[in-house]
Amino acid sequence: MKRKFIMRMFAVLVGCIILAFLTYRPVLNGMAQYLVYPDVKKPSDFIVLLGGETDGQRTRKAVELYREGLAPKIIVSSGARISWRTTESKEMVALLKQLHVPDSDIILEQRSRSTYENALYTKEIVEGQILRNKRITLVTDDWHTRRSMYVFRQVFAATDIEIHSVGSHSLEKVQLTDWWRDHESMQTILSEWARLVVYVIKY
What we know:
This is YdcF family protein. By secondary structure, the chain is an alpha/beta fold. Helices cover 48% and strands 12% of the residues.
């Protein structure tokens, strides 16, 4: 039943996109831009580095913010496996160390398999810590920031912890302007919109 409902919602979404494509180009560009939540840089207790990257740019952005003094520690949140030998989070940690982030400033969360679980397991970690700023900053791809912010704020709603985000600004593979002209960009934007709709309904 749930699957049928999701499929119907996805069909409605696709129909709306086709209608927008036939009527007004700025609407489509606006759809992509809506997925991008504005960057907010405020002193935080943790930088939360979300998995799902393909080029290391999320990790590099997290290191950039860490060096700027945005937060003293980085939580790496991902339980995805790259192969039978290693996980995504271990690869991200390896890059953090390569970029001279000490072990003592890295916290590893390896159970999450979705954005919701990223938030859930990060909350478990954060609630066990003494927080000076009562704030965390998410780092993920630009087009993933809107959904990440929504989910994290839902999960952290009963706490007094602020949630902010900074996009990785890695737009080499996914373009937000005229995205329907590029296959990979179109696939990413449509998929992200479908996930956003499902998350809003589900959570």
